[in-house]
Amino acid sequence: xxxxxxxxxxxxxxxxxxxxxxxxxxxxxxxxxxxxxxxxxxxxxxxxxxxxxxxxxxxxxxxxxxxxxxxxxxxxxxxxxxxxxxxxxxxxxxxxxxxxxxxxxxxxxxxxxxxxxxxxxxxxxxxxxxxxxxxxxxxxxxxxxxxxxxxxxxxxxxxxxxxxxxxxxxxxxxxxxxxxxxxxxxxxxxxxxxxxxxxxxxxxxxxxxxxxxxxxxxxxxxxxxxxxxxxxxxxxxxxxxxxxxxxxxxxxxxxxxxxxxxxxxxxxxxxxxxxxxxxxxxxxxxxxxxxxxxxxxxxxxxxxxxxxxxxxxxxxxxxxxxxxxxxxxxxxxxxxxxxxxxxxxxxxxxxxxxxxxxxxxxxxxxxxxxxxxxxxxxxxxxxxxxxxxxxxxxxxxxxxxxxxxxxx
Length: 408
What we know:
- Helices cover 33% and strands 12% of the residues.
- It is of the alpha+beta class.
- It folds into 2 domains: 217 residues, no CATH class; 173 residues, no CATH class.
- The strands form 4 sheets. The chain has a 4-stranded antiparallel beta sheet with strand order 5-6-11-9. A 3-stranded antiparallel beta sheet has the order 8-7-10, with no helix packed on it.
- α1 crosses α2 and α3 crosses α4.
């Protein structure tokens, strides 16, 4: 996944603000930022000027901006793609729509994940809703800029129409509110997600996305900080240890290579609580809590990994989860391996044909299948954990993650 800095954009914005404050002529930047229907006293005038100065949004041939006019999906997708520094796409164009190139840019950045806007003429010509805008902004925050997620306290109280927001958009709306990028449209703080996004609103959203200092202060949201810095994970440290150092850290004994039972492991195996998504019988994703046993030395990074999986826009569903066990001498008996959704992510031995589980992402489109590009694989890899789905000489194990880079 791409991760880009906003440094250049912010530097330009500083110049834009300076130009506005000093009342420099627009020609100083070679861009006309004055529009006959954008009075200087309107709440959106500064946002429009900044976006116009950056080339993110244009006016009309008659000198107007039309701030109250609704945006089409293709138009907002272009604005968002233009706001991402050094963005480009190498995908071959098919001539579907004038905004196809910008759609490809956002698609390659992961901004279109779970938004439901296909690259068709009809889809890109539709008016974009505030719900769709929120989903795109959330994905840009986390998939492009790598910002930390926000925990919103009592969203049903702080977002006036929260009860009518569908599950598909609740996370996006919560994050946009929590970041101070979006606010309510009435005294109750209602979001109004079914309303179309206007050009004036879009200008504000883009500026607040790029420039955190422009965002509103939010008293009911707190930033979710990583439990552990990825570079400090035991999985990374393990690679530079001697065998004796590894065994001392894992088992407290330089001559021990695995635990034979829970009593043998004692206090070196601990239980961590993690949250994940799952899917109910109606097909709706919901939160569930798991208690997983792992080695104490990897407890913090396991919590951090699952926090990232849970907060990722993909909302990968987990219906079965396993940690430490003592049936063999490998990584599970160390407390340093995790199995996820074993039925949908099988193990197969190439030599014997022996299998555990029923299928994998290559043979099924089940939402429980772990795919190479999934948030699950990315989160584990960030902390140095390998995936058995990469395969080895004799087998492949799609359910399995461990502290070894090979996923063994």
